[in-house]
Amino acid sequence: MYDICLTRNKMFRMKAGSVQARVDEETQVALEKLLRRNGWSMSRAVREGLQLLVNQQAGAGPRRMIGIGIFDSGTSDLASNKKYVKGFGANSGIQRKSGTKRKSKAA
To answer: Which among 55, 54, 34, 53 has a CA at the least distance from the CA of 45?
Structure first.
């Protein structure tokens, strides 16, 4: 069985279950030390590393931003309508450069 691998708009046929990777020189040196220290083949190092990642992320759902979908303002266009942000941050306490004036509010 073969899988198709697309790399830079070129197609290659790879045996299913095989992996190719490019690493920088620092990573290559660290990998070679790891192989010598443990007496592993390159394939075993890849399998061990992948298993560590699988175990570490087991049960973890998709990553989400904190707070999304928790608050309902009741306003459907809050994020896209500029009328809701008019004046926002006007009294934020940010120091202005000398010589610049703040626009006065119309009464």
So the answer is: 34
82: its two tokens: 């500029």
- For 75-106, the pLDDT digits (tens) are 777 777 888 878 777 776 666 666 556 565 65
17-75 pLDDT, tens per residue? 778 888 899 999 999 999 999 999 999 999 999 999 988 888 777 777 777 767 777 87
Do 103 and 86 touch, CB atoms closer than 8 A?
A: no
Residue type (1 letter), 98: S
Q: Which two tokens stand for residue 16?
A: 């299913």
**Contact status, residue 102 vs residue 89, Cβ threshold 8 Å:** no
Residues 6+ apart with CB under 8 A from 91: none
| Angstrom distance (rounded) from CA 104 to CA 98 | 17
Eight-class DSSP state of 92? S
Q: Are 33 and 27 in contact (CB under 8 A)?
A: no
C-beta separation of 66 from 60 below 8 A: no
